[in-house]
Write a structure and sequence with these properties.
2 helices; mainly beta
């Protein structure tokens, strides 16, 4: 997504990753358009393409998608967060999600 309007118009998947609710899109999102108070990360998929393995600030190879989060994921010294569990719940727009509590 290249513009803020495209970001707000997009239908996202609501996803739980390690018990944190995020919005997921398989597209790449330009970091410059992320609204203040949200965090954007990329998801790396396994080499076989059948599983999500880590959350990272940027993924070039094996990019599965981008997530938006209301909380910051601590990357620690590795620069990654291991995905222990995840699941998809519903779909929503960014505006609808921002209007919900969590």
């Amino acid at each position: 997504m290249q513009t803020l309007q495209e970001l707000y118009d997009e239908q996202f998947d609501i996803m739980l990753i390690n018990d944190v609710e995020v919005l997921f899109t398989p597209q790449r999102i330009k970091r410059e358009i992320i609204p203040t108070g949200l965090y954007a990360y990329d998801i790396r998929e396994s080499d076989t393409g059948d599983d999500f393995v880590t959350i990272e600030r940027r993924v070039i190879v094996n990019h599965a998608g981008t997530i938006l989060s209301k909380i910051e994921f601590g990357m620690g010294t590795t620069g990654t967060v291991k995905i222990n569990e995840y699941g998809f719940e519903d779909t929503t727009t960014l505006q609808e999600w921002l209007n919900t509590k969590s």
